[in-house]
Design a protein that fits this description.
By secondary structure, this protein is α/β, with parallel strands linked by helices. It is built from five helices and five strands; from the N terminus they run E-H-E-H-E-H-E-H-E-H. Helix 1 packs parallel to helix 2. The N and C termini lie far apart (33 Å).
């Protein structure tokens, strides 16, 4: 079975529950998790499941050019901009960047109700 190859950027309160679901999905291959703070709960979860972790999301993405999806749950618009720039610089037209609002939608659908987040409402 071909798995969906995913990297997650951001491993705090918003990303960790989604990461847990992704790690348990048999059709998903979590290739890496990045966060500036390597003490975040999602980093510990990734390490426990033997997933590559990094405090440098750009290096992580460059090391995995075959990613299908990058999930950005940082809530930081500059990260999204850097990811877009990186995709352009590397000529990557395959990988989809998922904004934290879409991740919130996915988590909410799984929970059957709107999941709260601590991120500010920022435009895409």
């Amino acid at each position: 079975m071909k798995k969906i190859r995913i990297a997650m950027i951001g491993a705090g309160e918003t990303g960790t529950p989604l990461l847990n679901q992704l790690l348990d999905a048999q059709f998903v291959d979590v290739r890496g998790v990045a966060d500036l703070d390597l003490t975040r709960p999602g980093i510990a979860l990734a390490r426990a499941r033997e997933v590559t972790v990094s405090d440098n999301f750009e290096a992580l993405v460059r090391a995995e050019p075959e990613l299908d999806v990058i999930i950005d749950v940082t809530g930081v618009s500059a990260v999204r901009e850097q990811l877009r720039t990186l995709m352009l610089e590397t000529g990557n037209t395959h990988t989809v960047i998922v904004h934290e609002r879409v991740a919130l939608l996915m988590m909410s659908l799984g929970a059957g109700q709107l999941v709260e987040t601590h991120h500010a409402e920022t435009g895409y």
